[in-house]
Amino acid sequence: MKFKKQVFGFMDMLRFKKLVPNRREALASGPDTPLPKVYRTNQQAERLHPGYMEVELTKIRPLAAGMREFTFRRVDSSAFPFFRAGQYVSLQAKIGDSLASRPYSIVSSPRDALAGRLVLGIEDAGFFSSYMCSQAKEGDRFHMTEPAGEFHYETLRDSRKIVCIAGGSGITPFMSMASAMLDGTEDYEMTLFYGAKDRQHIPYHEELTAMAEKGLKVIYVLSDEQAEGYESGFITRALLEKYTDLRSATFFLCGPSAMYQFVQEELKPLGLPIKAVRKDAGSCTDLEISDPGTFSLTVRMRDNVFEIKARENETLLTAMERAGLNAPNKCRAGGCGFCHSKWIKGEFVIAEDRDGRREADKKFGFIHPCVTYPAGDMEIEVPVAY
């Protein structure tokens, strides 16, 4: 393509000479209204992405199978940000000398969030969860992250027919997904298989029964009990095929690791594409080491330097929390990158299948402390959460 050369002539010089006076005249003739201090775009962005929120626990309700339900409201009385059914929030509290946090799938629907209500279902297992179930009380305040996570329905990726397989406390994200389907927030057909020991170990049994009357398809599978209206044994491929067409569905799995392994082996002969089987990652836990060593961990946070101890079997994030350091985190599974920190020196090990770093992070020496275990004395630089 040829461009015609433009000659800068006399009229151009004249227009340029008048440019500044014309601008001054336009400004002088404009209204005296001051520029706004707050822009609506920024307000909307803050509503959608508040970062950390201060919340108050308003209600505790006991559930089956050693679980409790916790209802929260925002201290500033504003609505919770809208989220995709299946996502999680991370809850943080000071427990003794430790500043601990854990991610929990949201039980309530996205519409409840806009009404200022958010519900979590927590099983009494683990350090933080046991604290919540045994010591937390109504009126207590916590810090909570905005909703996050990739464990949700995606129209362009997933089949309109979804098969959800839950075990134990893994029912929590599916309660939100079922509510979102029934109230019209999401457009999919959901079939839920829920594995439990017996009927006494089915939290949200009444709620699921009510949802089944409105269109949710629920199949209970009991491993230690036989009862009318319930399947017995385990969630096998034959059982799944009895109720749904497996090759035209997208699968969502949430439960204990043993359930993941069993169900994935059952589905393997179908040759499903990777995107057809989605599973909730779950938090990275302590390694099973009989006599773990203890190393020195130097943590740089802005202008502060902390010397703490880190055990061989615990993640760097756990070590920092145990020392009371406010290290950023959300998923605790290596995927979100929120705890993204700079490695300075020292040997480390990353949990198997948990390295969610980008290639650039690996090249320039960044790690995710939530899935990184020390293999010797280490030094890292960590951003402050808030």
List the helices and strands and how they pair.
Layout: H1 10-28, H2 40-48, E1 52-62, E2 67-74, E3 88-95, E4 98-105, H3 110-114, E5 118-123, H4 127-134, E6 141-145, E7 161-167, H5 172-182, E8 189-196, H6 205-214, E9 217-222, E10 231-232, H7 237-243, E11 250-254, H8 257-267, E12 277-279, E13 294-301, E14 304-311, H9 316-322, E15 341-345, E16 348-350, H10 359-363, E17 366-367, E18 372-374, E19 378-381
Parallel strand pairs: 7-8, 7-11, 8-9, 9-10, 11-12, 13-19
Antiparallel strand pairs: 1-2, 1-6, 2-5, 3-4, 3-6, 13-14, 15-17, 15-19, 16-18
Describe it:
By secondary structure, this protein is an alpha/beta fold. It has three domains: 97 residues, Translation factors (Elongation Factor Tu (Ef-tu), domain 3), CATH 2.40.30; 119 residues, Nucleotide-binding domain of ferredoxin-NADP reductase (FNR) module (Rossmann fold, 3-Layer(aba) Sandwich); 88 residues, Beta-grasp domain (Ubiquitin-like (UB roll)), CATH 3.10.20. Helices cover 24% and strands 28% of the residues. The chain has ten helices and 19 strands. The protein has a six-stranded antiparallel beta sheet. It has a six-stranded parallel beta sheet with strand order 10-9-8-7-11-12, with helices on both faces. α5 links the parallel β7 and β8. The N and C termini lie far apart (54 Å).
